[in-house]
Amino acid sequence: MTQKYKVFSWLLFDFANTSFSVMMVTFAFPLYFKNVICYGETYGDAWWGFSVSLSMLLVAVVSPVLGAAADFSGRRKRFLFSFTLLSVIATALLSFSAPGTVVIAAGLFVVANMGFEGGLVFYDAYLKELTSDKSLGRLSGYGFAMGYLGALCILLLLRPLLAGGIVPANAHNVQLSFFLVAIFFAVFASPLFISLRDEKKQGGTAISLDAIRRSVREVRHTVLHIMSYPDLARFLLAYFFYNDAILTVIAFSSIYAQNTLGFSTSELIMFFMLVQTSALLGSLFFGFITDKIGPKRTIVITLLIWFVVILSAIMSEQKEQFFMIGMLAGIAMGSSQAASRSMMARLTPQEHVTEFFGFYDGTFGKASAIAGPLLFGMVSSGFGSQKAALASLLVFFSLGLFLMTRVRSVSTAPHR
User: From which residue to which does any coiled coil extend (predicted)?
Assistant: First the structure.
């Protein structure tokens, strides 16, 4: 396989898996879970928040260990394939979820989201070996742009099925859309597993008891000596806070738009198509900007954009204003995620790339998604206002911005 085909297949995987993110995490399934499975009752919010948090917690716990095992055994692709297959199967089974199947549907979503989020650990770790350091920002931006293009395509594809609304009367069409998401994910993810190869290492079986013990020891060694990479440690902590806020916005955007501003399903589809388009353009534009001015400066710029987004959303009272805010949020989302992945790749030593990305995508990335949704729900419930909950996210963005200003763009710590 040529290098260009390998890069394209890597980008195509982003095109594939973002269909799951937009449909099952951000838009359709959250509304289906509450409006249909939970009959529109308030306990649906609690179950949804718990399901998201539990899936993220499980990924946060296992990602570093599995990342270390993949580094040792050289079987990164096999881990990625297993997580992807898990997500695809669970998503397909969610097409059978019906009113009242709360526990089963929540359990299947936890498995599906674990597969999706866990797979990102191994997927992102390929970035550093597919391009040079000077092009990391550009390729990372291309990846996110392909992802948003995939999200846009799945929304266009499934729009006819969702036109009747995410309500009990249209449940059959919504269920069918979940099955089509699984097919879309599987088909467009396949080229990566054909083009990329596992490294040949002497590690033996990656999932043996001995390999797990070795992985745990390696992870403990990483945790104990993480301060040997001070800029990496600062960046991960900054990422923890600002990514917390970003993931919370993603998880509650459809619910906020529908409950606070009264968006219809048709308007939500148009809204998310607009967000995905602007995120695509933001990823491409800021991918080039990242290579020009560095990922640190780019992240700082995008965090300032997020401040504008949150403040504007709080003051917004009209749907038309929220559409404009959505465009700005899409630009900030695509650019901040692409620049963050580029920053992580620059600060990560090659010999621990998958393990460290396990901390980035797993421990820090997913643990932040535990705190954010819980805080949002508590503030919303306590104050009786989703706008108050949205305002609470400014604390996370502020902490992330402060810590990010203390990170040097290139780590000077010695590699182990």
Answer: none
CA–CA separation, 93 vs 181, rounded Å?
A: 11
pLDDT digits (tens, 9 = 90+) for 367-376: 777 877 777 7
pTM, two decimal places: 0.80
User: What letter represents residue 209's amino acid?
Assistant: L
**Angle, nearest 10°, between helix axes 386-404 and 365-383?**
140
Q: Are 318 and 262 a contacting pair, CB within 8 Å?
A: no
> Quick one: tokens of 167?
């309500």
Query: What sign does the dihedral 251-257-258-259 (CA atoms) show?
Result: positive
Distance in angstroms (rounded) separating the CA atoms of residues 213 and 44 = 39
- Tell me the C-alpha distance between 85 and 249, whole Å: 27
Burial class from Cβ neighbours inside 10 Å (0-12, 13-18, 19+) for residue 89 reads middle
Pick the CATH number of 3-198+208-404 from 2.30.30.50, 1.20.1250.20, 1.10.150.320, 3.40.50.970: 1.20.1250.20
Residues 6+ apart with CB under 8 A from 21: 116, 147, 151, 250
Tell me the pLDDT band of 415, cut-offs 50, 70 and 90.
Answer: very low
Exposure of 20 by Cβ count < 10 A (0-12 exposed, 13-18 middle, 19+ buried)? buried
- Structural contact between residues 337 and 284, judged by C-beta atoms closer than 8 angstroms: no
For the chain, domain boundaries:
3-198+208-404
Residue corresponding to tokens 């206002």: 385
Whether pLDDT at 406 is above 50: yes
Amino acid letter at 280? L
* Tens digits of residue pLDDT in 29-88: 999 998 899 988 777 877 887 888 889 888 888 877 777 777 666 778 888 999 999 999
Give, as one character, the DSSP assignment of residue 26. I
222 with 354: CB under 8 angstroms? no
